[in-house]
Amino acid sequence: MSTLKANGPVPTGDVKISQKKPIFPIKPALHKYLKEYQREVKLPLSYRELCNFSDSVPVYDKEGKDTLWETPLYPPNEIVHIHEGLKQIYALLKASGNNRIVEHKFIDRIDYCAFGNTHPFRIRIVNRLNDVYDYFYVKQADASRVYGLELEEIMSPNRVNFVVDEHTLVEEHIVGIPGDVFSKRLMENPDYNPIRIAKEFVKFNERCFIMLLGDMRSYNYVMQITPDFDDFQFRIRAIDFDQEFYEGNMKVYMPQFFKENFAYVLLAMEHLTEKTVQQYQQEERSSIVHRVRIERHRLAALRDVSQNEQLSPPENIALLKTQLAAHYRNQDYHQCKSMTDIIELNIKNVIRQVKL
Fold first, then answer.
1. Quick one: pLDDT at residue 64?
2. Contacts for 68 with CB less than 8 Å, ≥ 6 apart
3. SS3 of 219, please?
4. By CB distance 3.0 to 4.6 Å, which of 71, 172, 218, 233 could disulfide with 180?
């Protein structure tokens, strides 16, 4: 069953997120899973400690616009402890705790965002020998986000790097051009093949729908561009996993229905036919099946852990399984009792479709 359709009606882009998703704590069973797969470490600094700032100043971009990030101001006697702790966290994230990689690095700035669900801190760390810098993020540990990150690791072509300690989640920076910036400034670059961009959006749309990764508006993913010997290759990568299997509206998990993605939808409708859309969807399903088979034990362990968690209101589960039953014409969805059941059935559907 196709989701994104070429040469059809343009989506209205009226999908709304019902409400701000609450933070779900990580329970012991998930902590055990994370420890088994080397995602859990003891951190020298917690998220709560970073929240102990006395004041902040807004961060503006190069054009003088408010970025919605703030630079927190810490008491002078806390700065050394915080910076040293952040350097050690970076070493844990990048080199399993080998502090030699931070010998010549310093914390250049700390930014805080009160806008996102997990209220992240963005850390910029700089190598003083050559001024090369990197970013990483310290966030509130949210079970929904952790499940989203793990499903991304298992079912997508992308690798994600994160660690957890109690109430603290640390994530590696995902490099790329923000999707909204790319669509406004770079999409019409004559050196870029619009068919390749449209193809990637179709695959991304299909992957999100199967994984139940919601709210993929253009500022919640990045475009990665790789020069090939005769062309440019594109990959869309999600950077926000807060809305993993929470909402009840099926369209929330389909990026094509967000108005912020209209440029990508229009590109697909202009350059792809119905047949090619179906071909790219089938390619993505086949890739997912291949990954699921390789990581079947890890996926089963994640399923067993999430099966007993209530990460979405019962009314959202009821609405989503009803909509998916109609969409796939599969009454088995009515038997699902959790979002985990729904994703498992999605995967089984994909396996059946690939075999046809």
1. 85
2. 113, 114, 115
3. helix
4. 218
Judge whether 172 and 239 are in contact, CB under 8 Å.
no
- DSSP H helical segments within 238-336, as ranges? 262-271, 274-294, 296-306, 314-328
DSSP 8-state secondary structure symbol assigned to residue 260: G
For 80, the token pair is: 């050394």
Q: What is the mean pLDDT of the chain?
A: 92
Paired strand residues for 169: 139, 164
How many CB atoms within 10 Å of residue 187?
Answer: 17
How far apart CA 310 and CA 314 sit, in angstroms, is 8
Residues near 31 by beta carbon (within 8 Å), at least 6 away in sequence: 40, 164
Q: How far is CA 171 from the centre of its chain?
A: 11
Beta strand segments in the chain, E:
55-60, 66-73, 105-113, 121-127, 133-140, 162-165, 168-172, 177-178, 221-227, 232-238
Mean pLDDT value of segment 167-190: 96
In the beta sheet, which residues pair with residue 170?
Answer: 138, 163
Task: Give the tens place of pLDDT for each residue, 85-103.
Answer: 999 999 999 998 899 999 9
Whether the pLDDT of residue 3 is over 70: the answer is no
Angular region, 15: left φ>0, alpha ψ -120 to 50, beta rest = beta
**Rounded CA gap, 29 and 136, in Å?**
26
Per-residue confidence (pLDDT) for residue 6, from 0 to 100: 47
The single residue listed with the structure tokens 């700032």 is 53
The pLDDT-based confidence of 83 (bands split at 50, 70, 90) is: very high
